[in-house]
Structure formats: C-alpha cells, structure tokens
C-alpha cells in the first residue's frame, strides 16, 4: 500500500537532520489535535445542556461508544497492517444468534461467554484464511462475509427473536462495577491498555507497523507476514465476539438486525483516531480519544434533541476536517519554505 | 430543503436550550419514532403538537434515530432519561431490545407508553394500537379482494422481517384469508422499508408470478415503491397495489390506477391520542391497569385489555372519491 502512496507522491520520505524531541512530536501530533476537539466538544456540551455534567448521564453516554471502540482497537491494528475487516457488525449478529441458540439449549452464563468469543474467533479465522491463505483482498473477502455471517442469522432467526437470557448475563451490558462506572466502561479501559501495550510496547506491534509500511520489504526481512495478519483477523473476530456479548446483554434480546451498520462507525472511529487508511501509521491513544469524541458528540446532540441525520453530517464533517487540516497545514508550510 | 430545515431546527433547539429551561413547569413529553423523515411520523408529530396546544402546559420533543434500529432508539432514550423528561411515547423498532432501556426510564420516574409499534409489556405502562390488529389484517386482504371478484394470485410486500406490527397484521390476515375464496396469497417478501429495496422486491414479484393480480404492502414505504414499480412496468390496471399508505404519497398512484384503494388510520389522530395518554398518566389523572379507561381528548377514551393494550379506531379506506380531500393533510 505504501508503494502506491509513493507513486502518487502523497507521502514524502525525508531524512531529517535531527530527530524531534518527544515533546515536539506530541505538540505536532494528531492526538493533541483530537484532544483539543474532545475538550471543545465537552466544554460546548456542558454549556449547551444543563443535563450534560451528571455522573449517571455521562455513564449512560459511554454506552454510545464502548462496544464499538472495543472492536475499533483491534480494527486499528488490522488497518495499520494494511488490511480491513468490514464483517465485524455481522460477526456480532452471528455471535449473538449463537448465544441466543445456546440459551435455548439451556446454556448458563459462562458457556454463553465461551460461545460468543468462540464464534467471533471462528469468523475471524475464516476471514483470515481467505485473506492470508488464498491471498484474496481483505476488502472483498469481508464484504462477502458481511453478507454471509448476517445471512446465517437471518436464516436461523427470520422474524423471530431470542430472548430469555439468564439474569446473571445482564451484568455484562447493564452492570456497574462501582458507583456510576459501568462494567462495559471498565472493559473498554482494560482493552485500551492491552491494545496500546501490544501495538506500542511489543515486538509484535513493531511487526504490524513494518508490514503496513512495506509488506514486501517485511516479507523479505523474514517477517511471517501471513501469520501476523492471520492473528490480527483472529483478534478482530474475538473483539467482535466480546462486543456481541456486551451488546446482547445490554439489549437482552437477539434479532438478526442487531448492530446493523456498525462496521462503518467502527472504521470511522479508527480513521478519526489518526490511523492511516493506507496502513503503516496510527496509535491506540488516538482511537481512544476518537471514541470519546464520537460518543460525546452523539450524546450532546441527543440531549439537545438534534435529529440523527444532523449528527451524521457533523461526524462526517468532523472526519473530513480532522483529516484535511494537517494536510492543508503541511502544504501551506511547504509553500512558505519555497 | 429538508436538510436545511433540520439544521435550522437544530440551531433553534440549541438556542432554546442555551436560553435555559424557561418553561420549567411544562410537562415535557417525548414522541420517539422509528426514524426521522418518514411522512407518517411527521404527521403524528403534528397531532402531538395539536394535543400540546389543547392541553396548554405541554412541550413536545419529537425525536428518533436516523435508521430504524433498536440501538439508535436506545441512544435516544438514554438522552431523554438524562434530560429527565416527564413522559416517553415510543413507536418501537424492536419489542424486546428496548425493554432494559425503557425499564430504566420507568425506574427514574418517567411515564413510558408505546404506540403504533409496541414494546413488550414489562417495558411500558400501556400500548396504544392505532386500530385492532384483527381489523387491519382483515382490511388489507379485503382491499385486495374487493377488486378481484373472480379471485387470483396476490403477494405481500412487507417492511423488515423483524418489524413487530407488520408481522402481526400478516398473521391476522392469514387467519381470515379463507373468508375470501379464490384469493391466493403466493408469497411474502421484505423491502426493509427502504424505497429502492422495496421497488426491486416488487419487480421480482411481477417477474416470478406473471399472473399476479394484487400486491398488498402493509407499509407506507413499500406501497409507494410497489405502485411505482407497477407503473414503470406499465401494468397499472392489471396489478392493483393496495395495503397501508399515506394519502399524500399515494394520490398520484390512485390517479394513475396503479392503486385502486388503500387504508390507513389517521396518524395525526394517533400522535394526538398518544400525547393525551402520556399526559394523563404523567399527571396522575389516570392509571394504566387492565380494564381501565383513559381519556384521550377528542378521540374518546382508550379501554385497556389484560395486557394493558387498547385500540384507537378503525382503519379508513381511501380511494379516488376522497383522496383529494386528504392528500394535503398527511
């Protein structure tokens, strides 16, 4: 993917005279820009609605993004490696349907967790085999499995719904760990830390960046590109399974239309978080802030009873603005340097 | 234009909120719909405003998600709980998945009723059916049979396979179809309440069943798309599109003959009644219990059955004789 980028000349490779200090890098970083947006959104919301600054309300608001963000972390790694998975929302539907089926068979909560994550892993493995084993483009494969996985749910359920989940299962999507801190939010924080460590502090994370920047180069450097990508598909599938557990528990019911359209929101979150859609660049802190920005905007507009379509327009404009601004700034700077 | 209007509304709403809760004593009743931008629900909102005007101390919050999803409605409900509204009157996208969110609303002292498309009993205090399901199920097949004295093949074009109300009506229709000898229901397809998908499904029906005499679409999106598909195939007069639709959207198809007649209750009345019911419950003027009667202004009163459900009125048939009187209303 970086090869095309070089051909179009959109990414410049320069060897600087002196490396910038971490502080300097942070000041010019995407994360700081996003953090500014997040603070601005938070402040505006606090002024716009008297109901915004309330612990329970903010706690309710986190449900707008926690499940999507959990998938977004794994998706970030996948996109950095130069692949994508558009079937994540359909994996939720299939995993949720499988859990609903297990309930009908008399499964208890612990079995349901295994089923949810297990189906997620299987779906991820299926995507991974098609992409890395047969060498098919991931965007095509996962558009296919997007229809396939949800299609199976529709065949199993049709116009019916699975309900009757055990009451202990409700904790995952409706429970609170302490005061207004929901279990889902704690899970979101734990996964954020886990994925940040994997991407930024392990050799596996370095491999992900290396593959995304130059898959051919990575291959010739002895990196097992296919194996790393397969693991990333597995991770994305597993996280979709975890999101399915949380969402199913929160809704208390499974229908085949569950989580419809979430794949685009997850990808939006990842791209807004500064992950290059061409692969090779991005960070988990960026995705975390992007999740907060999207959740906060949705909730703030909801408090003002702004129609949903206006929210979508705003998120769209925000995405374009945040992506365009650094590029425009770079061009202006380059022109000034002559 | 619609977009511009939405943006204007958004700005206006933001301005009002910035100005602070000036009318703090007003009862705030939220009318939550399946999705914004659907003619039927816009008409219901008009009825709600009419009720608010009549009651005087009521502020209507008309809201809903962009897509017809349960997840979208839950986000809306959470925002309404946060605003501490007095009542939520909702047309549900999913009768089960909204229950935890609506239970939470009731726990925090908010009156919750469902209307049009219902919520499971534990998630609301009462449900207002626009009409009785039996009457609607009978009506949609009767509309088709009235114009087919010699019988023939008919097909159903529904909304999504998970839509609560459409499924009940089709079920009721199937119960009484033996009363219409010669009418043969050959297929049920789903257009997901999307214009383009419904159009393609209608085209598919015409290709699969060359002898098709009528398409029954118990959804305001599906009926328009099916009538358009029939017109485009130049089969107006041969295939009668009927079901439930909005007069404003169907007027052209009544004129062209693609649809001979269709039925709908009055959504203005529905929004009006839902608001009246929510108001009477929120102000403790009435109690939702089996057998109870709750007044709803000019629409009389709602009698609740053992599941706390009640029917507003009979559906009303529109054809070339009366369409012009109604097409400008909703």
From TrEMBL, chain A:
MF (Gene Ontology): transmembrane transporter activity
Bilayer-spanning residue ranges: 27-49, 111-131, 138-157, 177-199, 230-253, 259-279, 309-329
Domain of life: Bacteria
Cellular component annotations (GO), alphabetically ordered: plasma membrane
Topology class, membrane: Multi-pass membrane protein
UniProt cross-references to Pfam families, sorted A to Z: BPD_transp_2 (PF02653)
UniProt entry keywords in alphabetical sequence: Cell inner membrane, Cell membrane, Membrane, Transmembrane, Transmembrane helix, Transport
Intracellular or extracellular location(s): Cell membrane
Main location class: membrane
PANTHER family, per the entry: ABC TRANSPORTER PERMEASE PROTEIN YPHD-RELATED-RELATED, AUTOINDUCER 2 IMPORT SYSTEM PERMEASE PROTEIN LSRD
Summary of the function given for this chain in its UniProt record: Part of the ABC transporter complex LsrABCD involved in autoinducer 2 (AI-2) import. Probably responsible for the translocation of the substrate across the membrane.
Subunit structure: The complex is composed of two ATP-binding proteins (LsrA), two transmembrane proteins (LsrC and LsrD) and a solute-binding protein (LsrB).
Protein name: Autoinducer 2 import system permease protein LsrD
The species this protein was found in: Roseibium album
UniProtKB/TrEMBL annotation, chain B:
GO molecular function, one term: carbohydrate binding
Annotated Periplasmic binding protein domain residues: 29-285
Keywords from the UniProt entry: Signal
Superkingdom of this protein's organism: Eukaryota
Localization per record: Cell envelope
Coiled coil segments of this chain: none
Cross-referenced Pfam families: Peripla_BP_4
First and last residue of the signal peptide: 1-24
Location (main, coarse): other
InterPro entries, alphabetized: Bact_Solute-Bind_Prot2, Peripla_BP_I, RhaS, SBP_2_dom
BP term (GO), one: rhamnose transmembrane transport
PANTHER family: ABC-TYPE SUGAR TRANSPORT SYSTEM PERIPLASMIC COMPONENT-LIKE PROTEIN (PTHR30036:SF8), D-XYLOSE-BINDING PERIPLASMIC PROTEIN (PTHR30036)
Identification of the protein by name: Periplasmic binding protein domain-containing protein
